[in-house]
C-alpha cells in the first residue's frame, strides 16, 4: 500500500513563490535568478514530501502561475489574439497571457471547480501543437533531484476532457472536436514521457465528477485506450478524480484500462463506496484512495479512513491500493509549525501534518492499536469541547421565523422610495469598495498589527485615507462613494477577527491565483458579533460628503466559503449564524445614517455543489442566508451586492431571489459573456455589469465602456436599472491607473446620459 499525493502547496512554506513572482515582475531580479530560485522552491517542495514518507511523488503539479495555462502553453493554444513584442522571452509571454499588458487584455480567469483557486481560461481555436514539452523537462529534472532516493516519480498531466471542458467550449460538439484534434499531441507528450522512463503517469480528470457530457467522456476513454499500445507495460496510468464522487461514470471508467483509479473518499465517500460495491471492477484495476481531506484542516478520523481502505483492499487486494489525500494539498496551508491556535490547534492538520497522517493511517491499517486509540480520543474530545457551542446563538437560530428573510416591501416600491431619497442620475456610477492599497497603507497596517504604532495613530492615518479617497471620488464625479477599505487586509479576515467562533493563523496562506494568496480563517465554534465592526469608518466617510456613501460588508456565504468550516454541523447552520451577526451590523449602519449598504457575495457561485442534483438545496439556503443578513432594513435603504469571477448564467434566478436592490457583477473580462442570460431572463432589479477589468493594468477607453453599456441595453437591461461600475474592487491597482480608468468610466456614463436621458 503505497503512499502518494496528488499535488502540494506550490507557494512554498513562506509564500516564496509569491515573493519571487513579484520581484521578477518588478524587474528586481533577472529571469535567470528568478528561475533558479523557483527551482530551489520546487526542489524543497518535492523533498519535503519525500522526507515525510511519500513514496510516489507528483511532478508537474507545480506552476509559475496556473496549471491550466501551463497545459495550454504546452499545446500552443493559450490564445491567438496575443500580440507579443518579438523580443519578449517565453517567460514574459507566459505572464502576459496570465496578466495582460498595455497591448493585450489578459486571458479570462475563473474559479477552479468549487474552490477559491482561480485558473486561466485559454482561448482555444481548435488548433494544437507541441509548443513546449515542459513536462518532460520537469520529469527529467525531478529524476535528477531524486537520484538515489527510494521513491517513485509520478508525472501529473491535466486530462484531455477536463482541460478542454475548462476552456469553455460552446457545446459538447465543439468539445469533442477539440478533443479529437488534441489527441495526437497529447499522445505525443505521453509517448515522450514513457520513452524517457516515466513509471507513473497521473491523468487528472476531475471534470468527471460533474457527471455530464456522456459522448465526450466516452471519447476520452477511447483516446486513453490508444495510449496503452504505446506504453502500458512500462508505465502505470492513474485516472485521477477529486472534489466529489464519480458514480455516474464509475462502471464505465473501470473498463478504460487504467491501472489505477483515484477517488475522493472524503467528499465523495458515500457515493464512491456505493458505486464501488455495485460494480464489478475490471481485473487488475487498483485504487488511489483519498482518505485525508485536502480541502479542510481538521484531523482525520482514522477509523473511518482505515475502514475505507479495508473495504477496497478486501476486494482488490492490498497491493492494489494507494493511500492519498482527497485532492492536491494546494488548498490547505503548508504547515502548523509556528502557529499558535490555542485550544483548537491539536485538532488541526495542514499539508505537512496531513502527510504525517497518511503515514499514521497506514500504520493503523497495519495494526498499530495505540495510534488508533489516540486518534479516537482526539476525535471524540473535539465533539465535547466547550468552544463549539454558544447557547445564545443556538437560541436565536431556533427563534428564526419566515419574516426574518423577507424585505418589508417588494422591489418595485422600494425602487420608487429609494429613487426619491437618493436622487441619483440615470446610469449612476459607483465602485465596488476597495481603492489602491499602496505600500504605505500596508506598512501602517503592519506597524499597527505588530504594536509599533498606537491605535490612535493608526486610526488617524485611516481617517486621513478616507478623507482623501472621498475627495478623490468627488473630484471624479462619482455618484455613490465608498470609504476605500484601507483598514482591511482581506474581506473575510477583517470580519472574522471581529466575530466570535473564528481562529486565525499566522502563516496559513493558500494560493488564490498567481501570486495572490489568502489566509482563510478557521470556523471552529458558534458565531456571534460582540461589537459593531464597520460603523465608525463608514460613518466617518459619510460625514465627509453630501453624496451617499455605501457601507461595505462581506456576505455570509462568502465568509463561509472562504473559510475552513467545522464539519460537525451542516454548512447552512454556520451560514445563518454569520448572517445573524451581519444583520446586526447592517441595522447598526442604517441607524448611523447610512442609506446604501453593500453586502458582497463574490463566492456565492463557487459554493455551488458540483453535482447538479444538489444545486437547488444549496442555492435555497445560500440565498436565504443573504436575505437573513439584509432584509431587516427600511424600504428606502438600498441594499447592494457584488459578485465576481464566475459563470452566473445558470444561477441567475437565485441571484434575483437574493432580492438585492442593486447588484454589480463581473463582466468585462469574459467580454460580455455574462450578458447572454439577459436575452432570455428578465432581470427586474438594478444591475451594474462591470465595464472595467480591474485585474489588468489596462485603462479601457471611453468608447469601449460606452459600447459595453450599449450592449447591456441591447440585451434587454432597462436603462433605469443599469448601473456603471468596474468589475471588482480596486485594491490591486495603482492610483494613476485608477484615476484614468474611473475618469473614463464617469465620462462613459455621461455619454450614455446624453444619449438616453430625458
Ligand atoms: N468590496 C470588495 C472590494 O472592493 C469586493 C472584493 C471582491 O469582490 N472580491 O475589494
Ligand atoms: Zn469582486
Q: Keywords for this structure?
A:
758 residues; alpha/beta; TIM Barrel; eight-stranded parallel sheet; five-stranded parallel sheet; 26 helices; 19 strands; binds glutamine; binds zinc ion
Walk me through what this model shows:
- With 758 residues, the chain is an alpha/beta fold.
- It has two domains: 2-387, TIM Barrel (Alpha-Beta Barrel), CATH 3.20.20; 395-756, TIM Barrel (Alpha-Beta Barrel), CATH 3.20.20.210.
- The protein is 43% helix and 12% strand.
- It contains 26 helices and 19 strands.
- An eight-stranded parallel β-sheet has the order 1-10-9-8-7-6-5-2. It has a five-stranded parallel β-sheet with strand order 15-16-17-18-19.
- α10 links the parallel β8 (260-264) and β9.
- α12 packs across α13 (369-384) and α25 (702-714) crosses α26 (735-756).
- The protein is globular.
- The model has no long low-confidence stretch (mean pLDDT 95).
- The protein binds glutamine and zinc ion.
Summarize the structure.
The chain has 26 helices and 19 strands. It has an eight-stranded parallel sheet with strand order 1-10-9-8-7-6-5-2. The chain has a five-stranded parallel sheet with strand order 15-16-17-18-19. It has a two-stranded antiparallel ribbon with strand order 3-4. Helix 7 runs parallel beside helix 8 (214-231), helix 11 (302-316) crosses helix 12 and helix 21 (571-591) packs parallel to helix 22 (615-630).
Amino acid at each position: 500500500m503505497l503512499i502518494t499525493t496528488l499535488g502540494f502547496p506550490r507557494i512554498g512554506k513562506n509564500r516564496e513563490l509569491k515573493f519571487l513572482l513579484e520581484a521578477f515582475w518588478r524587474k528586481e531580479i533577472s529571469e535567470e535568478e528568478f528561475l533558479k530560485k523557483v527551482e530551489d522552491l520546487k526542489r524543497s517542495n518535492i523533498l519535503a514530501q519525500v522526507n515525510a514518507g511519500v513514496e510516489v511523488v507528483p511532478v508537474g503539479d507545480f506552476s509559475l502561475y496556473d496549471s491550466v495555462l501551463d497545459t495550454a502553453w504546452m499545446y500552443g493554444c493559450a490564445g491567438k489574439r496575443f500580440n507579443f513584442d518579438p523580443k519578449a522571452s517565453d517567460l514574459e509571454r507566459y505572464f502576459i497571457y496570465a496578466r495582460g499588458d498595455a497591448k493585450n487584455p489578459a486571458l479570462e480567469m475563473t474559479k477552479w471547480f468549487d474552490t477559491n483557486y482561480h485558473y486561466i481560461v485559454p482561448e482555444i481555436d481548435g488548433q494544437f501543437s507541441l509548443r513546449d514539452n515542459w513536462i518532460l523537462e520537469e520529469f527529467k529534472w525531478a529524476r535528477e533531484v531524486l537520484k538515489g532516493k527510494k521513491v517513485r516519480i509520478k508525472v501529473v498531466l491535466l486530462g484531455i476532457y477536463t482541460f478542454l471542458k475548462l476552456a469553455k467550449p460552446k457545446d459538447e460538439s465543439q468539445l469533442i472536436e477539440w478533443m479529437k484534434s488534441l489527441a495526437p499531441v497529447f499522445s505525443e507528450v505521453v509517448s515522450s514521457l514513457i520513452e524517457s522512463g516515466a513509471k507513473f503517469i497521473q491523468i487528472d480528470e476531475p471534470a468527471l465528477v460533474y457527471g455530464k457530457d456522456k459522448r465526450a467522456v466516452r471519447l476520452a476513454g477511447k483516446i486513453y485506450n490508444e495510449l496503452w499500445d504505446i506504453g502500458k507495460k512500462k508505465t502505470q496510468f492513474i485516472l485521477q478524480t477529486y472534489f466529489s464522487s464519480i458514480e455516474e461514470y464509475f462502471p464505465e471508467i473501470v473498463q478504460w484500462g487504467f491501472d489505477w483509479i483515484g477517488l475522493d473518499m472524503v467528499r465523495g465517500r458515500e457515493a464512491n463506496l456505493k458505486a464501488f460495491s455495485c460494480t464489478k471492477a475490471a481485473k487488475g484495476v487498483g485504487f488511489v484512495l483519498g482518505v485525508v481531506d485536502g480541502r479542510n484542516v481538521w484531523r482525520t478520523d482514522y477509523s473511518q479512513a482505515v475502514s475505507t481502505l479495508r473495504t477496497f483492499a478486501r476486494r482488490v487486494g492490498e497491493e492494489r491500493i494507494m493511500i492519498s489525500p482527497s485532492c492536491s494539498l494546494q488548498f490547505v496551508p503548508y504547515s502548523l509549525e509556528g502557529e499558535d491556535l490555542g485550544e483548537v490547534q491539536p485538532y488541526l492538520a495542514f499539508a505537512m501534518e496531513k502527510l504525517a497522517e497518511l503515514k499514521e493511517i497506514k500504520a493503523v491499517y497495519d495494526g498499530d492499536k495505540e495510534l488508533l486509540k489516540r486518534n479516537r480520543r482526539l476525535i471524540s474530545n473535539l465533539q465535547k469541547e466547550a468552544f463549539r457551542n454558544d447557547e445564545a446563538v443556538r437560541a436565536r437560530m431556533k427563534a428564526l421565523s419566515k419574516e426574518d428573510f423577507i424585505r418589508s416591501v417588494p422591489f418595485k416600491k422600494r425602487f420608487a422610495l429609494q429613487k426619491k431619497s437618493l436622487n441619483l442620475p440615470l446610469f449612476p456610477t459607483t465602485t465596488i469598495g476597495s481603492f489602491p492599497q499602496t505600500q504605505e497603507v500596508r506598512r501602517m497596517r503592519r506597524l499597527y498589527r505588530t504594536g509599533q504604532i498606537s491605535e490612535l495613530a493608526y486610526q488617524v492615518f485611516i481617517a486621513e485615507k478616507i478623507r482623501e479617497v472621498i475627495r478623490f471620488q468627488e473630484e471624479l464625479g462619482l455618484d455613490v462613494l465608498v470609504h476605500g477599505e484601507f483598514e482591511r487586509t482581506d474581506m473575510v479576515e477583517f470580519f472574522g477577527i471581529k466575530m466570535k467562533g473564528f481562529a486565525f493563523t499566522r502563516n496559513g496562506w493558500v494560493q488564490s491565483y498567481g501570486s495572490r494568496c489568502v489566509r482563510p480563517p478557521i470556523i471552529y465554534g458558534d458565531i456571534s458579533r460582540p461589537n459593531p465592526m464597520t460603523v465608525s469608518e463608514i460613518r466617518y466617510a459619510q460625514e465627509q460628503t453630501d453624496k451617499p456613501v455605501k457601507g461595505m460588508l462581506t456576505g455570509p456565504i462568502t465568509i463561509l466559503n472562504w473559510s475552513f468550516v467545522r464539519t460537525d454541523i451542516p454548512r447552512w447552520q454556520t451560514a445563518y449564524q454569520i448572517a445573524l451577526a451581519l444583520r446586526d451590523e447592517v441595522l447598526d449602519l442604517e441607524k448611523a445614517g447610512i442609506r446604501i449598504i453593500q453586502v458582497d457575495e463574490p463566492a456565492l457561485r463557487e459554493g455551488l455543489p458540483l453535482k447538479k442534483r444538489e444545486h437547488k438545496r444549496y442555492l435555497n439556503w445560500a440565498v436565504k442566508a443573504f436575505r437573513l443578513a439584509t432584509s431587516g432594513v427600511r424600504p428606502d435603504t438600498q441594499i447592494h451586492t457584488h459578485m465576481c469571477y464566475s459563470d452566473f448564467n445558470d444561477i441567475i434566478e437565485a441571484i434575483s431571489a437574493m432580492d438585492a436592490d442593486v447588484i454589480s457583477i463581473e463582466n468585462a473580462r469574459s467580454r460580455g459573456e455574462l450578458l447572454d442570460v439577459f436575452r432570455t431572463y428578465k432581470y427586474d432589479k438594478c444591475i451594474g455589469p462591470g465595464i472595467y477589468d480591474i485585474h489588468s493594468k489596462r485603462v479601457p477607453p471611453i468608447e469601449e465602456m460606452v459600447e459595453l453599456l450599449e450592449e447591456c441595453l441591447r440585451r434587454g437591461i432597462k436603462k433605469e436599472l443599469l448601473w456603471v461600475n468596474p468589475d471588482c474592487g480596486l485594491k490591486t491597482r495603482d492610483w494613476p491607473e485608477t484615476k484614468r480608468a474611473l475618469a473614463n468610466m464617469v465620462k462613459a456614463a455621461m455619454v450614455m446620459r446624453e444619449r438616453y436621458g430625458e
